[in-house]
Amino acid sequence: MDANRPPASSATAAAGAPPPPHVPPELVFDYEAALGPTALEDPYAPARQVFETLPPVFYSRSANGMTTGPGTWVCSRYEDIREVYQNTERYSSVGIFPFADMVGESFQAIPIALDPPEHNKYRVLLNPWFSPKAVAALESKIYAIVNALIDGFADKGECDVSYDFGRIYPVKVFMGLMGFPDEKFEDFLSWGYAMLHDMANLERVQWGARSALVYLRSFIEEVRATPGDNLTSRIVHGEVDGRPLTEDEIIGIVFFLWTGGLDTVAATSALTFRRLALDPELQQKLRAQPELLPEAIEEFLRTNPTVNSARIAKVDHELHGVQIKRGDRVLCLAAAGNYDPAEFDDPLSFRADRAPNRHLTFVAGPHRCLGSHLARRELRIALGEFLRRIPSFRLKPGADRTVVPGLIATPRLPIVWDVKG
């Protein structure tokens, strides 16, 4: 439909500082508008225009707001993205997590900012807490948190499903896993919002990161004095290579987990409920066939990727016919790659029973999302319980439909439903 057609300016020639000399002028474009605010029913339609109209690998002077430096190569094809994620001989993750640098800290974000084999030993430390078995043990807590939230609005006929539900339940689960006190909930979200949503405002980003680091360091000291049965205690008292973790390693792990635990599931939830509110046929299908939920969750993840990760080239090489130089940044545009027809049959259609579904939302290779099992379980329980307990819902008349695809995608999403009796 016309309302879903992306604007013609979604991908245009870039303006700003000149790219490095080895970048051909004909490969310089801007892609930022493709992930900008939109009220489209399909918010990733502009990102697909990048896939459809630009070269498979091109150069952007903007680096997606998350990086420093002159710009980045952008790859939008599925196989190219998998290559960048999986080929650790050519591509490095060191330096891709910017927040420590932004506040003058020297620690590395662990494990995301380390390459194999160093990366592997920290994953060994953390993996048991995010394994399918560990996640299954959290299921009763997830159900309790989700249903307590639904209890608060089930009889009202309306709620802000993003603010009152989607932003809360995954953070509550994460806080319990880490051992953080409930009273820090709003502070955490405030600091995280400044870091992830105000990237154009360096002072706001620095305020969020510094505030979080001050608190996390004080919490680490508390855990050091009083060990507990939580992941933070496991990290603080953990060992790698038969030695205790250093202070930089501890804060690097805890700060990275804190950042990652605040928004990815919340953003996916917001986009999922937005789509269901705008697509009553899909909503009814999932109500009538709850057995489709596991596959439907994968399709929501495919069509609503929240992170487009970057890597740094370790050597000069060629990617899809383009010359990449050592030190170049390469951004993997999963928002386009997840719609590549070479991998996904009829990729523009939402198929609740799509299988296989090898989407790139959780990345690929050694840095595949540590919390992917937990995210899937949280999304399945939250969506299943909401559809079980809340009647057919729709966007509240006059509601702002604007979203920003990616992290903190939909801060507000008021919906309404008919209350019986």
Order of strands, widest sheet: 1-2-10-7-3
CATH topology: Cytochrome p450
* Count of alpha and pi helical runs: 16
Gyration radius, to the nearest Å?
21 Å
Q: Globular, elongated, flat, extended or rod-shaped: what is the shape? A: globular
Number of strands: 12
Tell me what portion of residues adopts beta-strand conformation.
5-15%
Give the fraction of residues assigned to helices: 40-55%
Taken together, the total number of domains comes to 1
CATH homologous superfamily title: Cytochrome P450
Annotated CATH architecture: Orthogonal Bundle
- What string, H for helix and E for strand, traces the elements in order? HEEHEHHHHEHHHHHEEHHHEEEEHHEE
Average pLDDT across residues? 91
Class from secondary-structure proportions: alpha+beta
Between the first and last Cα atoms, what is the distance in angstroms? 38 Å
Highest CATH level, the class:
Mainly Alpha
Describe the model.
The chain has 421 residues and is an alpha+beta fold. The chain has a single domain (2-417), classed as Orthogonal Bundle (Cytochrome p450), CATH 1.10.630. The chain has helices spanning 45-53, 78-86, 99-102, 118-126, 132-137, 139-151, 161-166, 169-178, 185-197, 202-225, 231-236, 247-278, 280-288, 293-303, 334-337, 372-389; strands spanning 57-60, 72-75, 91-92, 158-160, 239-240, 243-244, 310-313, 317-319, 322-324, 329-332, 393-395, 414-417. It has a five-stranded mixed beta sheet with strand order 1-2-10-7-3, with helices on one face. Strands 4-12-11 form a three-stranded antiparallel beta sheet. It has a two-stranded antiparallel sheet with strand order 5-6. Helix 9 (185-197) runs antiparallel to helix 10 and helix 12 packs parallel to helix 16.
